[in-house]
């Protein structure tokens, strides 16, 4: 089998491909993260590269325009080198780091659970030495002392610890330090060492997001956060959404293993960065709590996700046993137990349960809506008496997917927009003040609201005829509005929003609102009954609530009822790491929630169709806008 070199510019990185491998695979191997929203199926057109030297076999040309083809653009996922090649990777094809809300996560540092009881700890014990009147076995003696000292009566030895116990007890003259790991329903005595050991010990809270992975390193002796780091999920090269990832894992030989490796590699890179920055040694990390959606959890553990996407949408497992770090290849103490927080259904996972437990929705007096808007709108509604949850497929529009110039919230993304209704002139703000490259979710919400206010689109999202506005024009996919001209943008292209984009966004916001209404209808309550709305997730941070109400994404409630909680998945995982009670509480909460499958019955569909207007067909639901 032949192999060829591929050189990537401007990085000047080189790698080798085997015959039949494509440029997307080559880029992944060279460590160049590319946008690959469709997971390499040739349909999204995001993995563009420019062929500078050599030849490739192009399986498809997808969405490439005649101008791009003339300029040498190829789709990486559809291009197989036919010899050595040199390609240039343009900035817009790169998966740049996007906001991972580290500042907010650090604010969680002081957040200590009421019952501080970390999932791993070291306890100093002083045992009564044996004599002829007290000749209990060594193990029983230690267990009795442990119970007397800590109240812990569920401890079990592992064989390795037990095998050296007699010598260790005597070497320490009956003063020892026991390392205890919570194993869900029992406590494992992981190690017994002679004397009092003062070494530090650490744990990790991990948010495994479809887009971003964030790892927080926590000192388990005091509950202090030592460092937080985040980066995009390396699985992104297999597609933006969970469905593409499941398809790859299930249909590609070795795909599940590859996907698991990508998740573990992502976490390991973050661990390496954290240990390098803090001086903590990875061998001193003894417990890990992960929160992720159901698919991410399956893929991280290497569990078959095939049936998550098929009716009747059954995951392999909701409540998971802890597994050893070594089994997963995580670069922490090999015996460390890794806990994944429980899911309740295929599309409501441990990340949502972590957030719901964090806000203590199951103890709330007020009717609370907890909502995380990403590719899916996942939400929990209820209080201490009852809890409902559902997930509606909002599509990736709010994460920039399926929108021609959509992008995630990274440098150059337009995040806020204003339009002068008279002249149609635009004022925008971009992430990091960089030249605009596209528009992210919060910008899209602003934009829909202001396009409507300025009389540029109607309530169905259709563009109105306003020949006096120079920014309103006919594009190749119908009417479009120019947000930034090529000369002011960072990629020398006009940045536009088309009627098709607006319709996509209306479908996305309609799905979220319909999910909320369907849950309310189940319990026969009006929208106004919601006493507080807690918005979670990276996207939620930048949403202008008034605009989100104006377009009918969120219910028309006083803005004071809304609050933003940040990355509740990570914060919830952190609390679970620091408190066995919280960890058990997440399991209990997951058992209490009633999951509402929206594809059953007509209610959701009826609500969805009614919500395909700005803000809604029934304006009585939005009295503040009338
Ligand atoms: Fe190549 Fe989508 S077109 S990844």
Description:
The chain contains 16 helices and 29 strands. The strands form 7 sheets. A 6-stranded mixed beta sheet has the order 14-13-12-15-17-16, sandwiched between helices. By secondary structure, the protein is α/β, with parallel strands linked by helices. The model has no long low-confidence stretch (mean pLDDT about 90). About 30% of the residues lie in helices and about 25% in strands. A hairpin with a 3-residue loop joins strand 1 (about 5-10) and strand 2. The chain is globular and about 100 Å long. It has 4 domains: about 5-95, Ubiquitin-like (UB roll) (Roll); about 120-195, Ubiquitin-like (UB roll); about 205-340, Domain of unknown function (DUF4445) (Nucleotidyltransferase, domain 5), CATH 3.30.420.480; about 360-625, no CATH class. The longest helix is centred in the middle third of the chain and has 24 residues, at about 255-280. It starts with a strand and ends in a 16-residue tail after the last helix. The structure holds FE2/S2 (inorganic) cluster. FE2/S2 (inorganic) cluster binds near residues 36, 43, 46 and 75.
Itemize the secondary structure elements and their pairings.
Elements: E1 3-9, E2 13-18, H1 23-29, E3 48-53, E4 56-58, H2 66-70, E5 73-75, E6 79-81, E7 85-88, H3 102-107, E8 120-126, H4 138-150, E9 155-157, H5 159-171, E10 175-182, E11 187-194, E12 202-208, E13 212-219, E14 224-232, H6 242-251, H7 255-278, E15 285-292, H8 294-301, E16 323-324, H9 325-328, E17 337-340, H10 350-358, E18 368-373, E19 376-382, E20 387-393, E21 413-419, E22 426-430, E23 438-439, H11 441-453, E24 472-475, E25 478-484, E26 495-498, H12 499-522, E27 532-536, H13 545-550, E28 562-566, H14 568-578, H15 580-592, E29 594-595, H16 603-610
Parallel strand pairs: 1-7, 9-11, 12-15, 15-17, 18-27, 20-29, 21-23, 27-28
Antiparallel strand pairs: 1-2, 3-5, 3-7, 4-6, 8-10, 10-11, 12-13, 13-14, 16-17, 18-19, 19-20, 21-22, 24-25, 25-26
Helix pairs in contact: 6-7, 7-8, 10-14, 10-15, 12-16, 14-15
Bound molecules: FE2/S2 (inorganic) cluster.
């Amino acid at each position: 089998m032949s192999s060829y070199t591929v050189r990537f510019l401007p990085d000047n990185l080189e790698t080798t491909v085997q015959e039949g491998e494509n440029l997307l695979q080559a880029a992944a191997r060279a460590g160049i993260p590319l946008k690959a929203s469709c997971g390499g199926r040739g349909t999204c057109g995001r993995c563009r590269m420019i062929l500078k030297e050599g030849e490739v076999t192009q399986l498809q040309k997808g969405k490439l325009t005649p101008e791009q083809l003339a300029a040498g653009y190829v789709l990486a996922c559809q291009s197989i080198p036919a010899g050595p090649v040199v390609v240039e990777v343009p900035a817009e094809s790169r998966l740049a780091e996007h906001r991972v809300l580290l500042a907010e996560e650090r604010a969680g540092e002081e957040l200590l659970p009421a019952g501080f009881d970390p999932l791993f700890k070291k306890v100093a014990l002083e045992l009564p030495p044996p004599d002829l009147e007290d000749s209990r076995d060594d193990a029983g003696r230690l267990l009795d002392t442990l119970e007397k000292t800590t109240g812990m009566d569920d401890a079990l030895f592992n064989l390795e610890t037990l095998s050296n116990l007699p010598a260790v007890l005597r070497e320490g003259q009956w003063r020892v330090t026991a390392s205890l790991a919570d194993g869900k329903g029992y406590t494992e005595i992981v190690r017994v060492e002679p004397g009092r050991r003062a070494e530090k010990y650490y744990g990790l809270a991990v948010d495994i997001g479809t887009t971003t992975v964030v790892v927080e390193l926590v000192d388990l002796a005091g509950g202090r956060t030592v460092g937080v780091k985040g980066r995009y999920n390396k699985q992104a090269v297999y597609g933006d959404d969970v469905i593409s990832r499941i398809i790859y894992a299930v249909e590609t030989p070795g795909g599940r293993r590859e996907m698991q490796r990508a998740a573990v590699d992502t976490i390991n890179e973050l661990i390496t960065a954290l240990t390098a920055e803090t001086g903590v040694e990875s061998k001193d990390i003894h417990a890990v709590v992960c929160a992720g959606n159901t698919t991410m959890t399956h893929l991280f553990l290497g569990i078959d996700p095939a049936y998550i996407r098929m009716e009747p949408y059954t995951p392999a497992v909701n409540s998971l046993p802890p597994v050893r770090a070594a089994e997963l290849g995580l670069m922490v103490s090999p015996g460390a137990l890794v806990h994944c927080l429980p899911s309740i259904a295929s599309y409501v996972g441990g990340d949502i349960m972590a957030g719901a437990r964090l806000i203590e929705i199951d103890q709330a007096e007020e009717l609370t809506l907890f909502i995380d808007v990403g590719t899916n709108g996942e939400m929990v509604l209820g209080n201490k008496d009852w809890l409902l949850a559902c997930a509606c497929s909002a599509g990736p529009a709010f994460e920039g997917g399926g929108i021609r110039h959509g992008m995630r919230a990274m440098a150059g993304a337009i995040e806020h927009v204003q339009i002068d209704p008279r002249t149609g002139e635009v004022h925008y703000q971009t992430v990091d003040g960089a030249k605009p490259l596209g528009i992210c979710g919060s910008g899209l919400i602003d934009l829909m609201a202001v396009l409507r206010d300025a009389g540029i689109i109607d309530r169905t999202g259709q563009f109105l005829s306003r020949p006096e506005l120079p920014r309103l024009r006919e594009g190749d996919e119908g009417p479009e509005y120019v947000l930034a001209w090529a000369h002011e943008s960072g990629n020398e292209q006009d940045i536009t929003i088309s009627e098709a984009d607006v319709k996509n966004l209306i479908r996305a916001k309609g799905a979220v609102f319909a999910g909320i209404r369907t849950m309310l209808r189940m319990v026969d309550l009006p929208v106004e009954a919601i006493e507080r709305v807690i918005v979670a997730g990276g996207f939620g941070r930048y949403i202008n609530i008034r605009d989100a109400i104006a377009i009918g994404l969120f219910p028309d409630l006083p803005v004071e009822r809304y609050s933003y909680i940040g990355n509740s998945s990570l914060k919830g995982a952190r609390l679970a790491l620091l408190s066995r009670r919280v960890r058990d509480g997440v399991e209990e909460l997951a058992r209490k929630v009633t999951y509402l499958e929206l594809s059953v019955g007509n209610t959701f569909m009826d609500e969805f169709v009614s919500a395909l207007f700005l803000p809604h067909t029934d304006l009585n639901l939005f009295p503040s806008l009338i």
